[in-house]
Design a protein that fits this description.
Helix content is 33%, strand content 32%. The chain has 249 residues and is an alpha+beta fold.
């Protein structure tokens, strides 16, 4: 996917792409690699995201190309694919009306690095349990968004803790960590996320919220994507202006 951007924005994005590419090509551990990428996403930050989106909105071909791969996820956020390379994917996740959902419990097929661009993100961490007193939940195997998950049976898992991250922070997540995003403030939240290439063929979806996963997406039209991005920029500018005013007092 090629993004048609002006020279300044293109240079900024290329610097981020180079850090990501060099990180994946290094001999560092996966954890060190993703930590370095998370820091690069954090540095790219809200200003970088704003600059890219403004440029995308100027180009109908780029907007159409991105719309074909982007959709409203069942867990309540818009999943916007900015770059889809062989070794990684760069996404923007937007919860326009704040985070008012409880996701299915899941892990991933890949390593993840993410920076909180707007709002906050509250994540529950869970783990497997062998205790007789642990509640069992329905588990599904997720292979990809081209087909519905396969029911596997019951899984014993238990809650560990909750982690809250706010705009300006970054984090990484290993593939086998069971987690879910839960309701947070009723303000818009957004993250810039980079995932690695697949490191396993399937992931786990465990139903702790009575919500059976429906993963086959309905992709956005060009008009729908344009509306989402314009609304995001409007809300993000309001949030930024408020922070500037508070800091000036």
């Amino acid at each position: 996917m090629m993004l048609n951007l002006n020279e300044k924005v293109s240079l900024r994005l290329n610097n981020l792409k180079n850090v990501i590419k060099e990180s994946f090509n290094s001999t560092s551990s996966s954890k060190d690699t993703m930590h370095k990428i998370a820091q690069a996403l954090q540095l790219f930050g809200r200003q970088g995201v704003h600059e890219i989106l403004v440029e995308i909105l100027k180009n109908s071909d780029t907007l159409e190309s991105i719309a074909k791969n982007s959709y409203l996820h069942q867990n309540g956020f818009y999943k916007i694919i900015l770059l889809d390379e062989e070794s990684y994917t760069l996404r923007l996740h937007i919860w326009l009306n704040g985070i008012d959902v409880k996701e299915t419990l899941h892990d991933h097929r890949w390593y993840l690095a993410s920076a909180i661009i707007n709002g906050s993100l509250k994540s529950e961490i869970w783990e497997n349990s062998v205790s007789d007193n642990t509640k069992s939940y329905d588990e599904y195997m997720y292979i990809g968004k081209e087909q519905q998950p396969l029911y596997l049976g019951k899984a014993k898992v238990t809650y560990v803790n909750t982690v809250t991250r706010v705009a300006g922070e970054c984090y990484t997540l290993d593939p086998n960590v069971l987690h879910r995003i839960v309701s947070s403030d009723d303000v818009m939240s957004a993250t810039l996320m980079c995932r690695s290439a697949l490191v396993k063929n399937s992931s786990r979806n465990i139903i702790v919220n009575d919500k059976v996963p429906n993963v086959i997406p309905t992709y956005l039209s060009t008009t729908e994507l344009e509306e989402v991005l314009r609304r995001y920029l409007e809300l993000s500018k309001t949030e930024t202006d408020k922070i500037i005013q508070e800091n000036a007092q």
